[in-house]
Structures are given as C-alpha cells and as structure tokens.
Amino acid sequence: MIQMSLLEQILHLVEMIVSSPLTIFLLFIICGFIALLIAEIKSKEKIISKLLVYGIIISAIIVALIFNKPLYLLLDSFMNNLFQTILFPNIVVYILIIATINIFLISLLLKDKINNKYVIPTFIAAIQIDFLAILTLNTISKNEIDIHSELTMYSDKDLLVLLQFTTELFMLWVIVMLLIMAINKLINIKNKELKKQNLGQIKNLIIRKKNNFQINKKEKLIRKEIIDFVEEKEQG
C-alpha cells in the first residue's frame, strides 16, 4: 500500500479531477446544486426544492448508467462483505454494535419527551445484546480464546455463535427502527393531508355562513324598505 501525506493526497486528487473532463463537468453540476440550495434557503420556494430533488435523482441515474459496470462490482463487493460480516463478524464490528445500540438507547432515555415507539424495541434489543456480550466475555475467559487471532476466534463454536447472533439481532433492530420511521413518516403525511382537508372544509363553512349572513341582511333590508313603503302609502 502506498503511503501518502495529506497534502500529497489533496494534490493527487486535484490532479485526477483536472485531468478528466467528466469530473470537471460533475463539479459544475455540484456547483449548480449548491446554488439551488442557497436560493432555496433564501427564498424558501418549494419549486426550487423540487428542482433540487429532481436534479439529484436525474444525476444519480446518469451516473449509474455511465458507470454501471464498476457500480455493479461495488454493490456485489458490498453484499459479499455484508454477508461475510454477518457470518464472521470481527471484534471491531462487535464492539461498534454494542456501543451504537447502548448510546442510542441512552440518548432516547435522556430526551425530554420519551417516544415509546423507539424506546421499547431499542431497550429490548439492547438488553439482549448486552446479555450476549456478557456471555461473550465469559466464553473468551473460560475457553482462553486469543481474540487477536481470527482463526482461533472462528474455530471456537461458542464464540462464533455469540458473535453471529449478536450481529443478526442488531440488523433486525435496525430494520425494525427503519420500518417505524417509515410508518411514522407516512402517518405524518396523512395527518397533514387530513389537516389541510379539515382547514379547507372549515374555510368553506365560514364562507357559506358569511354569504348566508349577507343574504339574510339583504333580505331584512328589503323587508324593511317594503314595510316603510307600505306605511308611507297608507299614511298618504
């Protein structure tokens, strides 16, 4: 592996960008997106936000079409590494899993308003993962496993089962949390639509009442004019 300093990395990156017309074109597109974002922040117009979203989607599709082969290789490599991590998780991933779920749980519990939709599944998953972590420490100590050697780790059936099951629990928790977030988003969108409909109905009702009031007022004025006219005729 070639070792380069930060300055050398930056200079090499600039050289790569300048040497390719495609990357220069992409830089112009990125600058356009930045300009749209600044305009959206200043004007707060929804049409600019839509243009920005459509532009990002179209750009992503174009990039995917141009670089379909390397993108496919990257996705294939990602899936292979993902399944390899699930089947043979290493200690770094294992520690990150434990830290992530516990930090997330603590952050949820420290909020002023506790959301049970997120707290309950996170608490259940964290308790299970922490329990498995204690079993893992006990297994490492009891079987005198050298955690610096992957061969030794993966050859111990008890430790491998614990690592795999912990990873699977964590992924299940992530899927559950994403589903909850998606459902909440859909519910919020639906509530906003219902709120708009209710406001529209209330507005229409107010307009109708106002029109009815004006009609009744006109009718009273006409009746009064007729009565006054009749009284004048009788007096005359």
Quick gist of this model?
With 236 residues, this protein is mainly alpha-helical. Helix content is 89%, strand content 0%. 6% of the residues are buried.
Question: Can you describe this structure?
Answer:
- The chain is 89% helix and 0% strand.
- The protein has 236 residues and is an all-alpha fold.
- The radius of gyration is 33 Å and the shape is flat.
- The model has no long low-confidence stretch (mean pLDDT 78).
What is the secondary structure topology, with strand pairs?
Layout: H1 6-18, H2 21-43, H3 46-66, H4 68-87, H5 91-109, H6 116-143, H7 150-155, H8 157-235
Helix pairs in contact: 2-3, 5-6, 6-8
Radius of gyration: 33 Å
Overall average residue pLDDT: 78
Instruction: Please describe the biggest sheet, giving its number of strands, its sense, and whether it closes into a barrel.
Output: none
- Which segments are poorly predicted (pLDDT under 50) over 5 or more consecutive residues? none
Fill in the keyword field for this structure.
236 residues; mainly alpha; 8 helices
